[in-house]
Design brief:
Layout lengths: L2 E5 L5 H9 L2 E5 L3 H11 L3 E6 L7 H5 L6 E4 L9 H6 L3 E3 L6 H16 L2 H9 L18 E4 L3 H14 L3 E4 L10 E2 L3 H7 L2 E4 L13 H7 L4 E4 L8 H9 L5 E4 L10 H4 L4 E3 L8 H19 L12
Parallel strand pairs: 1-2, 1-3, 3-4, 4-5, 6-7, 6-9, 7-8, 9-10, 10-11, 11-12
Length: about 325
C-alpha cells in the first residue's frame, strides 16, 4: 500500500511508525498553520485523513483536498465529521467500533468506585494528615442497580462487569431492545433514571443526544443517585448537573468527558463530589494499538479498492 494520509489529531511516534511501516506517507497536521504548509506542498497527493470524533472534519476542510477519498475516525466516535457532506462528495468514512470498549469499561467501573467510595477525597485527606476524618462511611457498589444509556460495545462491556463482578441488576435504554442480552430494556430514558442507582451514559454526541441528560432527568435519579458519563460531554447539561449536585438532588457524578473540553467549568473542578478525568477512558496501549491497526486495515482496503472494514453508513 502507498497512500498519503493527513493526520489532524495527535498520534504517538510509535503509531506514526506503525502507519509508515504499512506503507502510509504520514503528514502530521495537528496545528492549522502546519496543515496549511503541508497542503501547499501535498494538497493533490493526500487521499485520506485521520481524525477523531471530537475534532471531526468539515465540508469546508474536505473541499481543500481535491483528491480526498477517505476519512478515518480513530475510535468509535465520528460526530464531528460531516458524514453527509463526505458522502455527497464521494468520500468514504470509517470509524473504530469495539477497539477500546474493554478499556473504557474498566475505566468506567473505576470512576464509579472512585465517586461512590469518595476515593479521591479520602486520598487527599490522608495526605493532609486527616486519617480519622477520612474514615466516614460511604455506600458499597455491589447490589446497586446500574442504568445504561446506550447498549453498544462499551455499554455491553460495562454491563457484563457490573452484573458478574458486582451482582448489579442492569437496565438500559437504546433505540431498539437487544433481546439476546440478559438485561432489562426500558424504552424511556427517564424510567431508567428513576429506577437505577447509578446512571452511566455511553451515548455518542450529536444533535440527537445534545443535553439528553437535562435537569429533569438528573433529578429523576434521586438524592442517592449518581451520574457517570464516558460517552460525549454534550450529552449532559453541565449547568444542570452542577446545580443538582450542589442542591443535593443527586449524590455526585464522575465524568471522563465534559462539554466544551478541554475547557472545564470552575464549578466542576471545585465540587468535591464530582470526579473528573481528562477524556482518557479509552486510552491504554492495547486500545490505541487496536485503533491504529483498524485504521491501517481500512486504508489498505481503500487503496486496493476493496470494501472497507468499518464504514460509517449514510446518515
Amino acid at each position: 500500500m502507498s497512500i498519503d494520509l493527513l493526520v489532524v489529531t495527535h498520534i504517538s511516534s510509535r503509531h506514526q511508525r506503525q502507519l509508515k511501516d504499512a506503507g502510509v506517507r504520514v503528514h502530521m497536521a495537528e496545528e492549522r498553520a502546519v496543515r496549511e504548509s503541508i497542503l501547499a506542498e501535498h494538497r493533490d497527493a493526500i487521499r485520506a485523513v485521520l481524525t477523531i470524533g471530537t475534532i471531526g472534519f468539515s465540508a469546508e476542510e474536505m473541499d481543500e483536498l481535491p483528491n480526498l477519498g477517505l476519512i478515518c475516525a480513530r475510535g468509535v466516535g465520528f460526530e464531528g465529521i460531516d458524514v453527509q457532506a463526505a458522502h455527497a462528495r464521494g468520500i468514504q468514512v470509517t470509524h473504530g467500533p469495539g477497539t477500546n470498549a474493554e478499556t473504557v469499561a474498566d475505566h468506567t467501573l473505576g470512576l464509579v468506585l472512585a465517586a461512590l467510595r469518595a476515593i479521591p477525597a479520602r486520598d487527599a485527606a490522608v495526605r493532609r494528615g486527616e486519617w480519622r476524618e477520612a474514615q466516614y462511611e460511604a455506600p458499597a457498589l455491589h447490589g446497586k442497580t446500574l442504568g445504561l444509556l446506550g447498549m453498544g460495545n462499551i455499554a455491553r462491556a460495562v454491563a457484563r462487569r457490573a452484573l458478574y463482578g458486582f451482582d448489579m441488576p442492569v437496565i438500559y435504554y437504546s433505540r431498539r431492545p437487544k433481546p439476546e442480552l440478559p438485561y432489562e430494556y426500558e424504552h424511556d430514558v427517564r424510567r431508567v433514571a428513576e429506577r437505577c442507582d447509578i446512571l452511566v451514559s455511553t451515548l455518542p454526541g450529536g444533535p440527537e443526544t445534545h443535553h439528553l441528560i437535562d435537569a429533569a432527568l438528573i433529578k429523576a435519579l434521586g438524592a442517592h443517585g449518581m451520574l457517570v458519563n464516558v460517552g460525549r460531554g454534550s450529552v449532559v447539561d453541565t449547568q444542570a448537573l452542577i446545580e443538582a449536585v450542589r442542591n443535593g438532588h443527586i449524590s455526585g457524578a464522575a465524568l471522563d468527558v465534559v462539554e466544551g473540553e478541554p475547557g472545564v467549568p470552575e464549578a466542576l473542578k471545585t465540587e468535591p463530589s464530582i470526579v473528573l478525568t481528562p477524556h482518557v477512558a479509552g486510552k491504554s496501549p492495547q486500545a490505541l494499538d487496536a485503533t491504529v491497526a483498524l485504521v491501517i486495515k481500512n486504508l489498505t482496503a481503500f487503496a486496493a479498492d476493496e470494501p472497507l472494514v468499518t464504514p460509517v453508513m449514510h446518515t
